[in-house]
């Protein structure tokens, strides 16, 4: 039983050492607001091969939009009207495999705002003006097929790849009987983050080695005690 206990301690130490080797690391970028339509670019770090073996890649995409909408009632009677401003963000990458996956899901992110007078009515020959903003963020994105692209994310420390995003904005008027002249002024921005999960295959840290040494010493001591009693 003592031999089994010492052996279990040794296996436990090795298990702790192995578990301590898993890790994650993330990088991100965010662009400032720009007038639509815009194309923006950002850079994210490739996975540093000295960290270990890459096991997974996921992204989060984010965007922002501000809009000022003007709804002019051209008729001589009050009109009930509202408007919806939208902005779709299409992402691309200079990594061919990643770009192909992005294309299957574009637009990756869509933002929208609604503008409406308090009572829903725009008085005759008047203009309703409203300013709104919207923020959006995708859920962690790691589609089928990402695991086949892991090698394309390997690089040396500091090496980067590019992500670009392009906006398509629009304005939809609801109601007004065709008597509403609508305009909008939009700004927007985009950003992204990447998270790498990996197994650290480097030489164990001193603390891990000390733990292993303690377990080995315990096993040896138990063996000497058994021989002394024999």
In short:
The chain is of the alpha+beta class and 230 residues long.
Order of helices and strands: HEEEEEEHEEEEEEH
Q: Strand tally, please?
A: 12
Oligomeric state of the chains in view? single chain
- Helical stretch count? 3
| Shape by Cα distribution | elongated
Helix residue percentage = 10-25%
The end-to-end span amounts to 15 Å
Give the low-pLDDT segments: 1-20, 203-212
Describe the main β-sheet briefly.
5 strands, antiparallel
Radius of gyration: 29 Å
User: How many domains comprise the coordinates?
Assistant: 1
Class computed from helices, strands and strand pairing: alpha+beta
Instruction: Determine the strand fraction and express it as a percent band.
Output: over 45%
What number is the mean pLDDT?
86
Write the layout of secondary structure elements.
Elements: H1 2-19, E1 22-30, E2 34-35, E3 39-45, E4 47-48, E5 53-73, E6 79-93, H2 96-105, E7 109-115, E8 121-122, E9 127-137, E10 154-155, E11 160-175, E12 180-199, H3 206-229
Parallel strand pairs: 4-10
Antiparallel strand pairs: 1-12, 2-12, 3-11, 5-9, 5-12, 6-7, 6-8, 6-11
Please describe the structure with a list of short key phrases separated by commas or semicolons.
alpha+beta, five-stranded antiparallel β-sheet, disordered N terminus, 12 strands, 23% helix, 230 residues
């Amino acid at each position: 039983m003592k031999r089994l206990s010492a052996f279990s301690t040794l296996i436990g130490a090795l298990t702790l050492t192995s578990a301590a080797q898993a890790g994650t690391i993330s990088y991100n970028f965010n662009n400032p607001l720009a007038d639509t339509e815009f194309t923006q670019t950002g850079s994210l770090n490739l996975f540093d091969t000295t960290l270990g073996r890459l096991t997974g890649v996921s992204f989060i995409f984010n965007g922002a939009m501000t809009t000022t909408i003007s709804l002019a009632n051209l008729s001589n009677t009050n009109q009930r009207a509202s408007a919806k401003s939208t902005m779709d963000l299409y992402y691309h990458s200079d990594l061919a495999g990643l770009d192909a996956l992005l294309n299957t899901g574009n637009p990756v992110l869509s933002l929208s705002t609604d503008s409406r007078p308090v009572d829903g009515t725009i008085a005759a020959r008047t203009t309703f003006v409203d300013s709104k903003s919207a923020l959006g963020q995708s859920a962690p994105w790691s589609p089928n097929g990402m695991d086949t692209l892991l090698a394309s994310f390997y690089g040396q420390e500091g090496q980067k790849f590019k992500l670009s995003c392009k906006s398509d904005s629009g304005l939809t008027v609801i109601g007004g009987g065709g008597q509403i002249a609508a305009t909008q002024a939009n700004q927007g921005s985009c950003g992204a983050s990447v998270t790498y999960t990996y197994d650290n295959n480097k030489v164990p840290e001193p603390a891990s080695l000390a733990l292993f040494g303690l377990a080995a010493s315990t096993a040896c001591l138990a063996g000497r005690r058994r021989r002394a009693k024999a």
